[in-house]
Structures are given as C-alpha cells and as structure tokens.
C-alpha cells in the first residue's frame, strides 16, 4: 500500500512507470510488425515460386504436348526438395477430371483468368495455388504449401521478449536512478519551504552548485526564502517594537488613572476615571489579540516549534478551572473528554483556543444554561451550549476580525476571540466551524479537510 501511494503521489515514480510501459508497448509493437513482415515476405516468396513453376510448365507444354507435360509433372512430384515448399500439381480436362498430378479435385479456381488463391489440399495443409488455361479442353493448377514458420516465429518472439525485458529493466534502472536524484534535490527545496531555518537554507545552497533547471530553481527558492525570512523577522521586530511603544504609555496612563482615582473624592469623576481605565485595558487586550492573530497567521502550516501536547490533560485541566466559575455564574458545565488525545502543537496557543471558546459560551449563554466541552480522537474538539446561538445573518462572518455576535446580554468585547481561535486552529492544521443547529451554538475544531 505504501509503495502504491508513493507511485501515485510522486511525479518521478509516475514518469518511470510511464517509461516502462512505453518500452513494453514499443517492444510489443515491433514484435507484431516483425511477425507481419515475416509472414508477408513468406507469401510473396511463395507467389513468386508458384508463378515461376507455372511458367515453366507452360513452356514445357508449348514446346511439347500434353503427354510430355504429364511426364514432367510426374518427374517433379518424384523429385520434391527436402527443405523447400512442397509442390502439388493437377492437369485436368475442361470438366476438372484429373489427367496427371497428385491432386484429385479441382479447387474451383477460374483457369481462364489465371486466378490465384489459398486452398486446402489433401491432409488439410494450406497452400497457395494458381490456375491457367492451356487449351480449349486442358487446364493446369500449380500449388505450393506454405512453409512452417512456427519455429522461426517462436524464436523471434523469444528474442523480442528477452530484449523487451532487458530494455524495460534498463529503462526502469536508469529512470529510477534519475528520478531518485531529482526527488532528492526537490526534497531539499521542500524541506526548506517546510522549515526555512538556517540549516535548511545552507543545505539548499550547497545542493545548487550545478547549472541545470533544478539548480536554478533551488537557488531562486533559497534566495526567496532568505528574503522572506528577513522580511518576516523585520516585520516581527517592528510589530513587537510598535506594540511595546503603544503598551508602555497605555500602562503608564493606567497607573496615573489609578492614582487619580485614589486621590479624588468626587463620585462622578471617579466613575469616569474607572470607565477610562476599562477602555484602556480593552485597548491593550485588543492590541495583544491582534498581535497573537498576526503571529498565528504568519506561522500557518509551519511545523517548526510544534511539540506533542496531551490535549486530553489540557482540556481536563481547563474544564476543572471553569467548573468553579460555572457554579458562581449559575451555569452547568459538562466535560466529555476522551483520554490520550495527543496533537503536535503549542500548549499556550491551544490553551488560548479552548479558553476563548469557553469564554464565548459563558458570555452569551444566560444563567441556568448548559455548556458542554467534548474531546474525541482526531482530534475533534467541540464546545456547544443551549444559549440563544448565533443569528443567521452573522454565521458567515462570525470568525472575521471585529465581528461581534449579538445577544440579549450585550455585545461587549472587540470581536477578536473567534478570529484568534481560527488563526490558532489553522496554525495547527485544524479547522474551526460553526455547526448548524436549532438551539444554541456548537463550535467544532477538527483536522483540515484535504481536497
């Protein structure tokens, strides 16, 4: 099964198989052409032999008479060549009655037009015959048996079979060797794309010292990856610097507001300062979420840095933490977690994914509602509830940035929680979706569907 999958998924293996099949078809076609050529040559030689023999008999009759011709036919039959084509004769009158020769029945050929055709002689052997009219009451038939070519054809078939097998083996060996070399060279390019670290880029540079198309592709790929890596590093450095420069003054402003809140005695002023602090902390959280989304989207499909994470233990631990909050908020939290579900990922990011889904459920489900956290192998993570659900007109854009679901409880938040969940899921080759349902919301995180 693995070998069949390799042939199906590798273009080089498909080329080798195609080349072997082409060699087999060409060899078979040449064998058929050779057989047809041998048989056609044999028939042409037989036709010439019959015509020459018949012409000789006509000359004998022209220079002698019927008795002389009958005598010569008898001599010819008595002196049949051992290795030649056996000859048969029939000298007959106008009604086809035999006068001389070894054939007894006239085969129906029209002697007046010197008709020729394949006939069956006594014993069932196939022969080529030609008839001619010698006189008003005399006609002659000359027939030569087809030479037995079965031994020759078997030898030719054996030669082509041996040559075909050797040709296919040579094509397979040469093609497989070339394909293996090409696959190895392209594997270095793919490895550099999958994990564009310094070691992979150096390996790509070392492998592109030649001057063919693959080397040119490897060199361009290495240069492009190096430029993208530098750009990504510069982008991360810039965003981190901008985030730091924005977060620091906001934190300073928050600290000043704390001091102002402690010093003021006016209730109205204190309330406005508290509202300002809340907005500042919301801006900080929004900034951090945007940075997290950008980081996850930038590393989508990158396997570097992923380690085995026991998702069952992580989900159970988070479920226990949220169980206490559920009692305080008047919700019911049900955990249905299958053990030993492991995934290659980042534990901190996966924690953010689960907590965002649970926070979203607790925020929109009214008091007394039920929230269920389910984990199955795959992995398949499901967070469902019996709350008001997501309105139909918002289902298509619920995972977009700054999209906020409306409910009777309000729409507080920046609308980045589910966008971050999608970015984290895609980083881990997972896909998050909102399952349709009559009541509540059901968010499912499962492996990406491969088209």
From TrEMBL:
Residues 241-451 form the Histidine kinase domain. SUPFAM superfamilies: ATPase domain of HSP90 chaperone/DNA topoisomerase II/histidine kinase, Homodimeric domain of signal transducing histidine kinase. Its EC number is 2.7.13.3. The keyword Transmembrane applies. GO terms for cellular component: plasma membrane. Keywords: Kinase, Membrane, Phosphoprotein, Transferase, Transmembrane, Transmembrane helix. GO terms for molecular function: phosphorelay sensor kinase activity. It catalyses: ATP + protein L-histidine = ADP + protein N-phospho-L-histidine. It comes from the Bacteria. It is found in: Membrane. The keyword Transferase applies. InterPro entries: HATPase_C_sf (IPR036890), HATPase_dom (IPR003594), His_kinase_dom (IPR005467), HisK_dim/P_sf (IPR036097), Sig_transdc_His_kin-like_C (IPR004358), TCS_sensor_his_kinase (IPR050428). The chain crosses the membrane at residues 12-33, 156-179. Its main location: membrane. It is an enzyme of class 2 (transferase). This is histidine kinase.
């Amino acid at each position: 099964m693995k070998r069949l999958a390799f042939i199906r998924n590798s273009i080089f293996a498909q080329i080798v198989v195609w080349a072997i099949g082409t060699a087999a078809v060409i060899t078979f076609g040449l064998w058929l052409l050779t057989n047809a050529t041998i048989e056609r040559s044999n028939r042409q030689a037989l036709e010439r032999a019959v015509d020459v023999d018949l012409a000789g008999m006509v000359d004998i009759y022209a220079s002698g008479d019927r008795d002389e011709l009958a005598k010569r036919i008898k001599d010819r039959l008595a002196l049949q060549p051992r290795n030649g084509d056996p000859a048969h004769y029939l000298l007959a009158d106008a009604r086809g009655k035999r006068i001389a020769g070894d054939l007894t029945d006239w085969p129906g050929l029209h002697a007046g037009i010197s008709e020729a055709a394949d006939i069956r002689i006594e014993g069932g052997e196939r022969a080529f015959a030609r008839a001619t009219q010698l006189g008003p009451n005399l006609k002659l038939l000359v027939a030569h048996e087809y030479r037995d070519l079965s031994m020759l054809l078997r030898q030719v078939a054996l030669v082509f079979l041996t040559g075909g097998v050797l040709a296919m083996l040579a094509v397979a060996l040469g093609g497989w060797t070339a394909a293996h070399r090409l696959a190895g060279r392209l594997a270095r390019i793919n490895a550099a794309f999958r994990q564009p670290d310094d070691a992979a880029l150096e390996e790509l540079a070392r492998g592109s010292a030649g001057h063919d198309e693959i080397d040119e592709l490897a060199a361009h790929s290495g240069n492009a990856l190096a430029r993208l890596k530098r750009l990504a590093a510069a982008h991360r450095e810039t965003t981190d610097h901008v985030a730091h420069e924005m977060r620091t003054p906001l934190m300073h402003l928050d600290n000043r507001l704390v001091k102002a809140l402690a010093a003021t005695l006016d209730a109205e002023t204190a309330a406005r300062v508290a509202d300002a602090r809340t907005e500042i902390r919301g801006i900080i959280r929004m900034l951090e979420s945007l940075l997290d989304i950008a980081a996850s989207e930038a590393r989508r499909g990158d396997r570097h840095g992923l380690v085995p994470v026991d998702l069952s233990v992580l989900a159970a631990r988070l479920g226990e933490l949220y169980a206490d909050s559920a009692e305080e908020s008047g919700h019911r939290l049900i955990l249905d977690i299958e053990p030993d579900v492991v995934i290659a990922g980042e534990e901190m990011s996966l924690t953010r994914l689960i907590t965002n889904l649970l926070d979203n459920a607790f925020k929109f489900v009214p008091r007394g509602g039920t929230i269920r956290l389910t984990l199955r192998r795959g992995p398949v993570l499901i967070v469902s509830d019996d709350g008001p659900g997501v309105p139909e007109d918002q289902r298509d854009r619920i995972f977009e940035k700054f999209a906020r679901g409306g409910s009777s409880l309000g729409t507080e938040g920046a609308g980045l929680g589910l966008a971050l969940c999608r970015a984290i899921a895609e980083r881990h080759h997972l896909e998050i979706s909102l399952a349709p349902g009559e009541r509540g919301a059901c968010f499912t995180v499962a492996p990406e569907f491969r088209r």
